[in-house]
Write a structure and sequence with these properties.
A hairpin with a 3-residue loop joins β1 and β2. Strands 8-7-6-9-10-12-11 form a seven-stranded mixed sheet, with helices on both faces. A five-stranded antiparallel sheet has the order 1-2-3-4-5. The protein starts with a strand and ends with a helix. The protein contains nine helices and twelve strands. Helices cover 28% and strands 31% of the residues. It is an alpha/beta fold and 276 residues long.
Length: 276
């Protein structure tokens, strides 16, 4: 069929013009589909939800990686939770000081499918600095205290395999998995369509970390086109953002002209994340 629609909780639908289905399979965890589209490049869907398109994936992957890594003073060991498509790892590897990146993804088939069919996103997963771990991230994080400078929680919607990645117990384990001065970033859903999720996640984060901040960006193929992210740590100062390093890794969305501007929230988003 020429048009493919993602229906979001009976609230909205996004339609994309597809030209070919290049892959489909049912993994032990979810249905994985890859399409060619008109105008959006390759499209990855998991259980009927759009995970990325080649047109706009850079926005999400740059925001979840470059903002925290340019605020941390010296990120050398990085854990990516989820992110089986490889896009976040690709951006992390642009930071020359990074020595080791662990990708912990529960569904190996997502990664292997993306390596085969979406290499523009997954093509850096064979870098020698990258370790692929196909396991439950909740258990992995719990078993690796004091191991990482930065943890980037690149999860899907808080249902199915990702349901355990949005609660206070997991956030407490993230805190224990950080080295001194460590920092966490996470995607935290649409402020328009998932307001309760956004509010709840930030409340849970504030119960664990001393410093919690929200930032956001525009991703056309995600529900509502507006997406929020969280930044958390116990020794977190936004003014530590290193403009020189940010300029060196500048991509198509995150760069010196954005910088701390990503934290300039619309009033309704500010109220959500602060629990007003």
């Amino acid at each position: 069929m020429p048009w493919l629609y993602e229906h979001y909780h009976d609230l909205s639908a996004i339609g994309l013009h597809v030209t070919d289905k290049v892959h489909e399979e049912q993994s032990p965890f979810q249905r994985i589909e890859v399409y060619d589209t008109r105008g959006h490049g390759r499209l990855l869907m998991l259980d009927g939800m759009v995970m990325l398109t080649e047109l706009d994936e850079f926005v999400y992957h740059e925001l979840i990686s470059h903002i925290p890594l340019c605020i941390h003073r010296d990120p050398r060991r990085v854990l990516v939770v989820g992110g089986g498509d490889g896009g976040t790892v690709r951006e992390v590897l642009r930071h020359p000081g990074v020595e080791r990146v662990v990708l912990c993804e529960i569904d190996e088939r997502v990664t292997r499918v993306c390596q085969q069919w979406i290499p523009a996103v997954a093509g850096r997963l064979d870098d020698p600095r990258v370790e692929l771990v196909f396991a439950d991230a909740v258990e992995y994080v719990r078993n690796h205290p004091g191991s990482f400078d930065a943890i980037l929680v690149d999860s899907s919607e808080p249902i199915g395999p990702a349901a355990g990645l949005f609660g206070g117990a997991f956030f407490a384990d993230l805190r224990r998995a950080l080295r001194p001065g460590g920092i966490v970033s996470a995607q935290t859903e649409s402020p328009f369509y998932a307001a309760d999720t956004v509010r709840g996640v930030f409340k849970e984060l504030r119960g664990v970390f001393a410093g919690v901040h929200a930032y956001y960006g525009c991703i056309p193929t995600y529900p509502s086109g507006c997406w929020t992210f969280a930044l958390a740590g116990d020794d977190l100062r936004l003014t530590d953002l290193d403009a020189t390093r940010l300029a060196a890794v500048a991509g198509r969305y995150v760069g010196p002209s954005l910088g701390l501007g990503a934290f300039a929230l619309p009033e309704f988003v500010r109220r959500l994340v602060e629990g007003d």
